[in-house]
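Structural biology now treats backbone shape like a language. To illustrate, our science desk offers a sequence and the tokens encoding its fold:
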Amino acid sequence: MAEIRTMKALRYTEKAGPLADNVCPPYDIISKDDRAGLIAKSPYNLVSLELPSDEDCPGEDKYAHAGKKLQEWINAGILKQDDKEGMFVYREQFAVKGKQYVVTGLICLVKLYDFSEKVVLPHEETLTKAKTDRFNLMKATFCNFSSVYSLYLDPAGTIRGILNHAASGKSEHEFTDDEGVTHRLWKIEDKAALDALIQAFADKQLFIADGHHRYETALNFKKYLAEQNKLEGTNADSIMMTLVDMDDDGLVIFPTHRLIVDMQINKKELLDKISADFEFAEYPDIEKAEEVLEQHKDKHAYVLYDGGSGFTLITAKPHVNDMIFENRSKAYSSLDVTVLHSLILEKGLGIDKQNMANQINLRYTRSAEEAVDRVKKGACVLAFIINPTRIHEIKNVALAGDKMPQKSTYFYPKLKTGLVINKLDK
């Protein structure tokens, strides 16, 4: 099963300034304004490399520019590779709706496996454009800047015990970010602990939680190097991952709400079209939308908001639970997002899969407040507020060899990019 490996991490030195000023979120949630703000904090913020911009290097290939800047930082001692191999314990402490959480992960290298080998299992569809971008960056920098977030099962608590022991002392790094999330990092160099971890993962499957594009890109890059006879002597047959216990009490998944734009929609006609499969109830206070959804989490339930003070609760009729969509698995067909996409967006609104993939009439947000606000301001026509996908659903879809629709999960908080970097050349 999964083969995990130690790494000689490339890390920021004191010359770069505070670590908190140099790390960044994953590339795919960074806006143009976010990027500018991060670089304003520090000229060495990793966003310059993780998300290169044409504006930084007019007339020059942005990926090549990132590769050149990386080497400049290494030469200047801004980044330095560890002398010793190791793995890292990474903890995030945070609050959601007044409740405190702590989630613990292990940062290490993991041998790359094709999905057909059933060792590393995906759960979500990917897009070609993002994979091309990540491939070009990997080719120019020969690094994993951000790790793939994956889950594992540890019913005996063996791995948990090793990580808790390793994190019992003072952390190497600790800082709190602008969202109020506290990040802590410990390095494991003890051979006995490292060997125990390697042994503990030898019978594990890994479920990708976040980072599907990065994982598939790493597979493509490994194949590319092999074809060039350049794979040997590199770390490119592995990828940096942060591994988290699927039963960790700190795991939090936010829903990703759907916004409909650039369409003329008659709400009554929409409800009539889908009335064979759904029941409807009107509620007076949109502020109670998430609370009402929580009460209906055992059903396929959605809040439809088209403006005003109230909302419509849409709940699936019992026969919907027995439907199988697109000849896919039962696990896939049982997802709230699958039912929403198939019976409401496609059947009710005529938004087909190509339209969804290209985001012609569909947008996303993880904030219910933002969804409501955008409808009120006329930026979108309708909002569908949904419940979050649950951990066991991710596991079931992955084990079924299936993939969820895009934007089915949003793990919170995101892992910081830049705590440790994996150089692919040994």
User: Anything to note?
Assistant: DSSP finds 14 helices and 21 strands in the chain. The first strand starts at residue 4 and ends at 5. The domain at 256-387 is CATH 3.30.1760 (Conserved hypothetical protein from pyrococcus furiosus pfu- 392566-001, domain 2).
